[in-house]
């Protein structure tokens, strides 16, 4: 078998990414190049550095363990002249809320999303699937085997993320924002709460004994 040069492998990788148009996993790149995934990852990063140093119109973006060749943002405007009919994705507040629930809970069922939102979300989820931001991720091992949902590589691309690790963390529970925790953390004295002290309580009890309270008839 003829031994391929590193340059040939790099050129083959570039052709593969260019022709795909979609993110390609390291596993698929490994199959094509017949190299271990670690070696393929090094090649991808090498090609990425090369394109960055040349300030080429093409760039390589990473989405978890998938890679895609895209156009640099500098050239979006001239390209948009050619593709004026292609509209940017615009999300409503309801769609953003639903998308946030899915991305932080994935894989998740439609019913779980609806339960968290407190309203049926089938239509919103279907729209997110049409936009290419959400996709099916198998079925849950539970009665009825409901379909699981997850976000797509397009979600990462639209929001300018290379990994889900770049997502902002969910806000931690703030004890000061929770009145129950606040009360437990700093119990107030009887005087602060407006409650009578022991001497006042004795006087009230004595007055209650002297004055008979009427009992309402049934």
Largest sheet: 3 strands, antiparallel
CATH superfamily of the domain at 93-166: Winged helix-like DNA-binding domain superfamily/Winged helix DNA-binding domain
Number of helices: 11
Strand elements, count: 6
Keywords:
single chain, 218 residues, alpha+beta, Arc Repressor Mutant, subunit A, 3-stranded antiparallel sheet, 6 strands
Question: What does the model show?
Answer:
The chain is α+β, with helices and mostly antiparallel strands and 218 residues long. Among the domains are: 6-78, Winged helix-like DNA-binding domain superfamily/Winged helix DNA-binding domain (Arc Repressor Mutant, subunit A); 93-166, Winged helix-like DNA-binding domain superfamily/Winged helix DNA-binding domain (Arc Repressor Mutant, subunit A, Orthogonal Bundle). 50% of the residues lie in helices and 12% in strands. It is built from 11 helices and 6 strands. Strands 1-3-2 form a 3-stranded antiparallel sheet. Strands 4-6-5 form a 3-stranded antiparallel sheet. Helix 1 (6-20) packs across helix 3, helix 2 packs across helix 3 (37-54) and helix 5 crosses helix 7 (122-130). It starts with 5 loop residues before the first helix and ends in an 8-residue tail after the last helix.
Show the helix and strand layout:
Blueprint: H1 6-20, E1 24-25, H2 26-33, H3 37-54, E2 58-63, E3 66-71, H4 76-82, H5 93-105, E4 108-109, H6 110-117, H7 122-130, E5 134-139, E6 147-151, H8 153-158, H9 179-185, H10 190-193, H11 198-210
Antiparallel strand pairs: 1-3, 2-3, 4-6, 5-6
Helix pairs in contact: 1-3, 2-3, 5-7
